[in-house]
Amino acid sequence: MPVPPISSLVLIAYSLQIFNASPVEFKPPYAIQVDWARSDCEKGNLFADHLKTVFTPNACADVVDLPSTVSSPPHPVTFEFREVQNVIANLNPKKAPGIDGISNKMMIELPRVAVRILLFIFNAMLRLEYFPNNWKVAVVKMIPKPGKDLTKAESYRPISLLPTMSKLFEKLLVTKLSPILAERNCIPDHQFGFRRQHSTIEQTHRLVQVIRSAFEQKSYCSALFIDVSQAFDKVWHEGLILKLKLHLPTNIVKLLENYITSRKFVVKEGEFVSLPEYIASGVPQGSILIQLAQVHTKYLKKRPDISRNIFFS
């Protein structure tokens, strides 16, 4: 008996789902060159291979020699017990756990003695400028993009689940980093993304004001809108670390360098979990420390032949 074409199989599956009293989620097979990935194992490995190419830095035509002597004086940073308590109290109990299996609800129920142990661990990480390797593994789940061909791997959006312990430490660290970033003017004024009290509505007002001002002065006003594909997935680690060295204390940069580099991911598809793969570029999705990548926008070049350059990001 000949096997029906894949389009017919998809149609049959959807028909069965409609008439089934207790429907189950249907996942179409994915294309693998001349074959199809049908099992969770095949799909998971297909997604893992796809993401390996995504988390790879873009090729550089010229060899770039980065200075290694750029540094700022150390800035002692420590956490206090009440800070850890406050962060734990504000955790969302409905968030899914990462590869460690530790949920936010479990963290909220911790006794005081356990919180003190966490405080000791977090302060040791600051002192040693070290981020545990087990906390640098993300579980990636692929979510279909609406209106896309679901038989192609690129039609799915990766959602990363980070370890709960990692996210807890990040929340504490960002409370120490934010004042330093603001004091040293690390984030440019035109950067609104991932910043508190900086909404898209305010950016729209800025844009309207610039256009209106140009009309009043009877001058030209041109706009260029750029959507950089995989902008955060392709962040160049060495370049980002160099820019952080220009603004942040040495001890914090070393910790962040350890945090950003040598990260791994696994893909979870159904009950299948792929083997760990290294992440060679990008910043961790789902991490509140993603705002570190905003330092890149500070170095956008201005056109010298234009009287006024205004950036929105």
Automatic annotation (TrEMBL):
<feature type="domain" description="Reverse transcriptase">
    <location>
        <begin position="124"/>
        <end position="313"/>
    </location>
</feature>
<feature type="signal peptide">
    <location>
        <begin position="1"/>
        <end position="21"/>
    </location>
</feature>
<dbReference type="GO" id="GO:0003964">
    <property type="term" value="F:RNA-directed DNA polymerase activity"/>
</dbReference>
<protein>
    <submittedName>
        <fullName>Probable RNA-directed DNA polymerase from transposon X-element</fullName>
    </submittedName>
</protein>
<keyword id="KW-0695">RNA-directed DNA polymerase</keyword>
<keyword id="KW-0548">Nucleotidyltransferase</keyword>
<dbReference type="InterPro" id="IPR043502">
    <property type="entry name" value="DNA/RNA_pol_sf"/>
</dbReference>
<dbReference type="InterPro" id="IPR000477">
    <property type="entry name" value="RT_dom"/>
</dbReference>
<dbReference type="Pfam" id="PF00078">
    <property type="entry name" value="RVT_1"/>
</dbReference>
<keyword id="KW-0808">Transferase</keyword>
<keyword id="KW-0732">Signal</keyword>
